[in-house]
Amino acid sequence: MNRREFLKLSALSAGAAMSGHVVSGYLSGADASTPHSDGYLYDMKVRSMDFEIIFDTEIINPPKHGEPVRIWMPLSQSGFEQDVTHLSVDSPVAFHINEEHQYGNKVVYAGPDRLNSGDKITVTSRIHRKTVSVIEDKSEDIGRHLVLSEKEQWNDDIKAFADKTVGGETDPLKTGRKIYYALHDLLTYDKDTIGCGPGVSKWTYENRGGRCADFQSLFRTMMVYKSIPVKWEQGILIPYPSEKILTGELEGDCIGTLCWNKFYIGEGRWIPVDLVEGNQKKEMRDYFFGHLSPNRFNISTGRNITLAPPQKGEVLNTFPVTYGEYDGIPLIYGHHYRNNVRYKVLNVEI
Questions:
Q1: Greatest CA separation for the chain
Q2: pTM for this structure?
Q3: Domains parsed from the chain with CATH numbers
Q4: Crossing angle for the helix pair 156-166 and 172-186, nearest 10 degrees?
Q5: pLDDT tens-digit readout, 163-212
């Protein structure tokens, strides 16, 4: 590929066309600023959403001596709950679309090449996202979702809490339900947690709270301790349909991302769980055990990720946003580069 090449990735854009109907009045300018009177009840009725996503990674302060930079951007892909279409990548330098081997995450890889201040790599796509309930996927390798990262290890306190919570229950669905509600009672979402939350289960249990990764880490640790496979997924949340915010921008850093889990109950079936949204939106606590709202899109799966091609730095704890290096040294978000996510709601189906 030549420099400043704009590539329409038609082969990766195959997916379902826009479907459903536009909710009456939802996209009208006069009505768009008024939140829906039904609030959370309305949000739980939504079956799917369509939106356009523009994800930019911009170099704001390149390495002082002009060292070549390597950039890895996660690339949303189609799956059981979302169809990704109209996908394109715009880059000032040559790039490739790769796939990391452990979880199959797609990666836009650019470099090594010199990037200047103001250079942007932009990924544009349309996403049709369905409300998620029970997912059947018999092709999944469940064994890899029983392997915990070093940040998700349990200690005696977590084991004792899990044993007390679960008791003698062995059914995976009932076990997941008990742990979900126990963690709702135990944890408090804390916006003052430094950074993005370490996603360390022991820390979360000791502090009785944290951010998104902290909640989901502890859930995964307790479930795997009970020998139940749990999948880690991560993406970005846009406003709920009832808020009627049709366009906007989000900071594409780790604080602006959302993670959730799916746990295995046998016969290829996975149950989705979003502890954080259930904790913050109390009226939807029951909904988020067994459902994922469609005002989100998945970007990556798994933890302890080695990219393609491999980064020279440490394995990534998670991969929801762009990662970069120069001379094997990780780029610093907010200093070397910044991400921006623009969204536009196209359709809401109820």
A1: 62
A2: 0.88
A3: 5-132+302-349 (2.60.40.2250), 135-245+252-298 (3.10.620.30)
A4: 120
A5: 999 999 999 999 999 999 999 999 999 877 765 677 999 999 999 999 89
